[in-house]
Amino acid sequence: MGNEEKSLREMPQLLPIEERISTFKEVNLGFTEEQVKKEASRCLQCPKAYCMAGCPANVKIPKFINAIRQGNYKRAIEIICETNSLPAVTGRVCQVEMQCEKACILGRKGIPVSIGLLERFVADIALKRGWKRFACDAFNGKRVAVVGSGPAGLTVAGDLIKLGYEVTVFEALHKPGGVLVYGIPEFRLPKNVVEKEIKTLEDSGVKICTNFCVGKSITLKEIFEEGYDAVFLGIGAGAPVVLDVPGVNLGGIYTANEFLVRTVLMKAYLFPKYDTPIDFGKKVIVIGGGNTAVDSARVAVRMGVEEVKIAYRRSVEDMPARREEILRANEEGVKILQLVNPVRFIGDENNHVIKVELVKNQLTYIDETGRSVPVPIEGSNFYVEGDMVILAIGQKANRVFTQTVPQLKLDKEGYIIVDYEAKTSLERVWAGGDIIRGSATVIQAIGDGKRAAASINKTLMSNNI
Amino acid sequence: MYTIIDKIQLTEGIFKMIIKAPHIAKSWKPGQFVVLMVNEIGERIPLTIVDGNTYEETITLIFQVVGKTTALLASKNVGEQIYSIMGPLGKPSEIKRYGKVALIGGGVGAAEILPQARALKQVGNYVISIVGARSSSKLILVEELKSFCDEVHVCTDDGSYGFKGFVSDALSNLIEEGYRIDYVYAVGPVPMMKAVSKVTFKHKIKTVVSANPIMIDGTGMCGVCRVIVGGEIKFACIDGPDFDAHLLDFDTLESRLKTYIKHERKAFEDFMRCQCHG
Ligand SMILES: Cc1cc2nc3c(=O)[nH]c(=O)nc-3n(C[C@H](O)[C@H](O)[C@H](O)COP(=O)(O)OP(=O)(O)OC[C@H]3O[C@@H](n4cnc5c(N)ncnc54)[C@H](O)[C@@H]3O)c2cc1C
Ligand SMILES: Cc1cc2nc3c(=O)[nH]c(=O)nc-3n(C[C@H](O)[C@H](O)[C@H](O)COP(=O)(O)OP(=O)(O)OC[C@H]3O[C@@H](n4cnc5c(N)ncnc54)[C@H](O)[C@@H]3O)c2cc1C
Ligand code: SF4
Ligand code: SF4
Ligand code: FES
Question: Which range marks the domain in which residue A325 is found?
């Protein structure tokens, strides 16, 4: 292979655009085995692997890529699973351009190795062939309760079941998976992938109790009274921020959470086969710039509306959503209005939204996140027609559990305070994922889960408990 | 799974169901509700917990058939299963000794004041309840309420039983007749709660209503249940459902309840035409 060819990155297969905009089928079809081999061969196997430092869970990237090169996919998945319990998920949804691939040495010189897609490939093979990724030790006599079945909770469950703990996961909703089932849409993360990951855990002995809202259906105190030795809180951020501008309670204005729960979890797009309704307009405006905003916009596209616009307060370059999804959204016809803020929502005589008043922003000084701060330009107001508005302007800490445990130390925004081992201020209670840092990423939640599981194990195995 | 242990039709379109749900039976308090799904492709709907039996591990729900999901639920029989029931949700009502309390229930709201009546009586209040319905045949739970309350006043829109008129008018009359009432709790359709609130505002009586916005998760996650209370946005599922009636914005609540009216009607009609799934 010539050097030139070697520097070219493999491109994944994509579902044709026409098919995408009328179905919820997965868009990125991943690599073929051929492509995997080529892409893996581009890795330089750096002794000092920068890529690993870019991965919040420290996946042993060069090592697993090396196993792929040797054709040993089983070994590859084992290496990945040492630090990442949901590789078929992360291989699809990680913000690679901000994480591992950003740090890859080839990235600095041009085009990084497609680490995420390699990870996804081996993870999918493992799921398809039903490879057991780990063996479980005999029951060690200790019981752990996990609250919340998002990536953080599932990771803790997986790590502890391996070590011989009895693990019960309590989930408030009727389906386990957290944001993986109620947020991220099918076309980006097929629900059968999540179901299979969860099934693997259940087959290993993890007990999942759905319809259990901890704090309400069972209190923290009662969990300990039932004989659990430790509790992990992976309850997610999961409370929508509602914009405080006039007209925000008009009909047709949804929080992204409501919109995604209706469509992704309750499958409103199959109404009336599925019972949950959703009222699609003709012109949809999504406010925000993160994954939630882009996902909402792309769901709307698939519902056959006339036009979908995203209104974001900073510039497109500053949008926190995955680059790939912004690209795909563009291909699917989503328009992005950058540097604008909503000022007011205007309704018709039935109190249903018909247009949004926006104001243009200008970028000013750079803040601590390294981005320019947008400031409204006075008098630049304008109107955009829209009969459906989706607010995707962020998440707050959900209080359904924390409001029931006043002793638990929270920061001023309501997130649980933990130490470097993920311990909370309460004895034998750990926490991780979005509920300790605000909405973040799947792999950070997994990383937290790993840390917490190790600490729980250390604590429960020491003699004093 | 949650098995239906008993099912009784109270009047046309209103059913009482006793359902096995051990952990909810154990921990529920008056004012709390459950979110249930009849089957896996169903909608999630909130219903108030009217009673619970720790020994039998059951809860009692009383609901009115107004649309697809409640109709589907009503079509289920003893021995059948409900796919999902989660709870108890919401903040329990504030049960304390107020003195003389008036509980107002419009329509199926009569069921929702039952646990309030029992608890408020237990802590030593003088409990009056005022229940209303369109006509005498639609009245429910009058005898049950009588067993917990010191007085039960009944109203019908057509005058076929008791006072002819709305519950808010009956309340207004009582106050004007010189009843000293220290606390009012009202549950029912929004216009009824709004009317009650207007009466008690005039007389400066502390009034709490159980807000009934559309809900999905019931855990503070989706934001659909938002209501405006004293100018602030609150989520009824975790901050309520009980709110100070004099601070609650009833008009926004009412207009937001109508969001899905077209779809709901279609789903209901389709369901009644062919009871095709469930
Ligand atoms: C639309 C959307 C798109 C996203 N896209 C990406 C992406 O592309 N890449 C990426 O890395 N990240 C993405 N994220 C962020 C990512 O999904 C989250 O950071 C991650 O899921 C957090 O995991 P978690 O385990 O902390 O909590 P969650 O996934 O939020 O799960 C928490 C679970 O706990 C349950 N729960 C809450 N309270 C209780 C209680 N009291 N009792 C029982 N159960 C309870 C909830 O019902 C929920 O199921 C996205 C998020 C959204 C909303
Ligand atoms: C906290 C809470 C407790 C409740 N407790 C009870 C109860 O104990 N018994 C009972 O019969 N009902 C109760 N409700 C109302 C009940 O949830 C609705 O009647 C139910 O969701 C209707 O579902 P559906 O699919 O049958 O009808 P839909 O097709 O969803 O609605 C049909 C009609 O009912 C109206 N409607 C929809 N949701 C509500 C609502 N939340 N409140 C009032 N009207 C609504 C719609 O505007 C529409 O006109 C409660 C609601 C809340 C929020
Ligand atoms: S930095 Fe890039 S090239 Fe180097 S080992 Fe990691 S993936 Fe391979
Ligand atoms: S887990 Fe995510 S960040 Fe880590 S290597 Fe895999 S794709 Fe990259
Ligand atoms: S029902 Fe979803 S936040 Fe209240």
Answer: 242-393
